[in-house]
Specification:
heterodimer; B: outer membrane lipoprotein receptor (LolB), chain A
């Protein structure tokens, strides 16, 4: 094998430079035609400023830093100026360290420690083996990855790469806020109210290893031991009468409420059947909802092989847990890709097989929410500055669909505008269908430097 | 973004692209090499450095391009080389051995034309600092300008790996 050429198309990289920087200022306006039961807002504005800097004192060592500053109109962003490192806030932090890591490279070894991004797997829409990649799901269908604090050692020899990752503490995915439209609360009988009992974060590290072979056929095997970064929920009903509380003890941890069930609405206890529009009765019943992040062990693999007309990608993982509250399951996705002229086509199917049902009251697991579904994406590059794309997901039982149309146009070297139209339809007991009042239009204007 | 091209003597090259937005590399499948590179008039294949061992060459004569006398050479990919082009015509300047123009054909139809200009001597190597690629079917063009160029820098093998793609992006 002979290497002839490597073309690096990036403004940030030049061997002679010791410091490079990049970033952008982005403003987003979201318009929802319909109000939701718990959210009357139709217009939301957000702004994000991101700065990334790279210091390279030598060819073997690099320091990378990145910070995000945010503002918004809908209180999805914290209102204080506290600098966030851990990403455990329920709302997005105003000032966040997005990356701060040191990377040392020598021969076939690369070591990076600090706050960084770790991506595993090969598929695009659902990635079962991507266990070190929590996401910000405040707006479920437009999500972004969150960094983790970790040490990562990579050994690369020829076509083989072995990746070992150790993270001292869990970075959870950020889930939708209960007072906003991306949480669809169940109908509750009069006198019953949900109370956020906060989160119970696990102690202890996460670790994982992945071997990847990048030959004509690419394949990888991954192991992960740690915690699910998607929360599950425990509920504890309590009877509250004046001066008396009856029920499971345990003080709520308070904080911003955050609870949801992605697969089904929170179950209503049988003794609370019947609906009432009247004023709350005494005694009230308070249902404490607490997030927890169950232990998880994952073994999985991914493969990609090119055929004459298309590329086939597959990814599967088996999840087990020593926590009886968590489900044990297998999750797989099969995906086909094809580039045809200026068109890019991607289609796939994702499914889960539950082998043990846990005792948890609910979960927030969008990747499983997109299982038993057909997924597709088509993109067309109009020219160097303009592109359109359409993405869709449809549950095989027909209970939910999600369609996104996107038009993007660059203006000059620095400006880009993107218009995104999202249509969600379905039934209330479906992961996608529950958001049927959240179809929206999104306008993004970005200045990159 | 970053693009890694690894040429093989006995088969088509491997290509991977890294985009920081998704923090993952993505392989450019063989059937996708004719795709335009991010909407420009260059295709992924055009960004490969052609391995002379994978082509057969025939001298067609002399012609003048932009006032410079050139050899006109036809190149055809060997059977082991998979290409979107059936053949190319290459004009090589006699005074400095730099490319002056390349025309890429699919059967008899001209698909793309690259014109090389702003040819400067860099460390003894004459190199075009401006390449204009014209897509004949779309009647559009893209100009690639080289702002900084150094030859013979010491580079290690590990600079040409998937890991290096993510490091350098």
């Amino acid at each position: 094998m002979r290497v002839l050429l490597a073309v690096i198309f990036t403004a940030a990289v030049c061997a002679a430079q010791s410091y490079t920087q990049r970033g952008f200022l982005e403003s987003r306006a979201t318009f929802y035609p319909q109000t939701a039961a718990n959210d009357r807002a139709r217009m939301i504005g957000e702004s994000l400023f991101r700065y990334e800097g790279f210091l390279r004192p030598s060819s073997a060592f690099q320091l990378a830093g990145s910070v995000d500053l945010r503002l918004d109109t809908h209180h999805q962003v914290e209102r204080d100026l506290r600098l966030s490192w851990q990403d455990r806030e329920t709302r997005r932090p105003t000032v966040e360290v997005r990356r701060l890591s040191g990377m040392y490279h020598k021969g076939p070894m690369t070591f990076e420690a600090g706050k960084q991004f770790v991506r595993w797997g090969k598929t695009d829409i659902v990635t079962p083996t991507d266990r070190f990649a929590p996401r910000d799901f405040l707006t479920v269908v437009d999500n972004d990855f969150l960094p983790i604090t970790a040490a990562r050692l990579t050994f690369e020899k020829g076509s083989n790469t072995v990746d070992a990752v150790w993270s001292p503490r869990l970075t959870p995915s950020r889930i939708p806020l209960p007072d906003q439209r991306w949480v669809v609360l169940p109908d509750l009988p009069a006198g019953v109210r949900l109370n956020d009992a906060g989160a119970k974060f696990p102690g202890g590290p996460q670790s994982g290893a992945r071997w990847n072979h990048a030959g004509t056929i690419e394949y990888g095997v991954a192991l992960y031991q740690g915690f699910n970064h998607m929360p599950s929920f425990e509920i504890s009903p309590r009877f509250i009468v004046p001066f008396l509380t009856v029920g499971p003890a345990g003080p709520p941890t308070g904080g911003t409420p955050a609870f949801n069930s992605s697969r089904s609405p929170l179950p209503t206890p049988a003794f609370l059947t019947g609906r009432s529009a009247g004023p709350p009765t005494v005694p009230d019943i308070q249902v404490d909802v607490q997030r927890f992040y169950p232990r998880m062990f994952m073994v999985g693999g991914d493969v990609a092989f090119p055929l004459p007309w298309l590329t086939v990608k597959g990814e599967a993982a088996r999840f087990t847990s020593s926590d009886h509250r968590a489900d044990e399951l297998g999750l797989y996705v099969l995906q086909l890709e094809r580039q045809l002229g200026e068109w890019f086509f991607l289609g796939g199917y994702a499914a889960e097989i539950i082998t043990r049902k846990g005792t948890q009251a609910g979960d927030f697991v969008p990747d499983r929410g997109l299982s038993q579904a057909f997924l597709g994406r088509a993109g067309y590059t109009i020219d160097a500055n303009r592109s359109i794309a359409i993405e869709a997901a449809a549950r095989q039982n027909g209970k939910g669909t999600w369609t996104k149309f996107e038009y993007s146009q660059a203006m000059g070297q620095h400006w880009r505008t993107t218009l995104n139209l999202t249509l969600i339809r379905g039934e209330v007991d479906d992961f996608l269908g529950q958001y049927r009042r959240n179809s929206h239009a999104l306008l993004v204007v970005r200045y990159s430097y | 973004m970053a693009l890694l091209v690894i040429n093989h003597p006995d088969r088509s090259s491997d290509q991977w692209m890294w985009t920081p937005a998704i923090n993952r590399e993505r392989r450019i499948a063989l059937q996708d090499r004719s795709t335009r590179f991010f909407g420009t008039d260059f295709s992924f294949e055009d960004l490969e450095e052609p391995d002379t061992n994978q082509f057969d060459y025939r001298l067609l004569g002399d012609e003048t391009i932009d006032g410079a006398l050139c050899w006109k050479v036809e190149s055809k990919p060997k059977q082991t080389k998979i290409s979107q082009y059936t053949h190319s015509l290459v004009w090589v300047r006699k005074d400095n051995y730099a490319f002056a123009q390349i025309e890429n054909y699919n059967k008899d139809q001209l698909v793309r034309r690259a014109r090389y200009s702003d040819i400067r001597n860099v460390q003894g190597i004459w190199t075009a600092h401006s390449i204009e690629m014209q897509d004949m079917k779309r009647n559009s063009r893209t100009i690639l300008k080289i702002e900084k160029l150094q030859y013979n820098l010491p580079m290690k093998d590990d600079a040409f790996t998937l890991q290096a793609l993510s490091r350098e992006s």
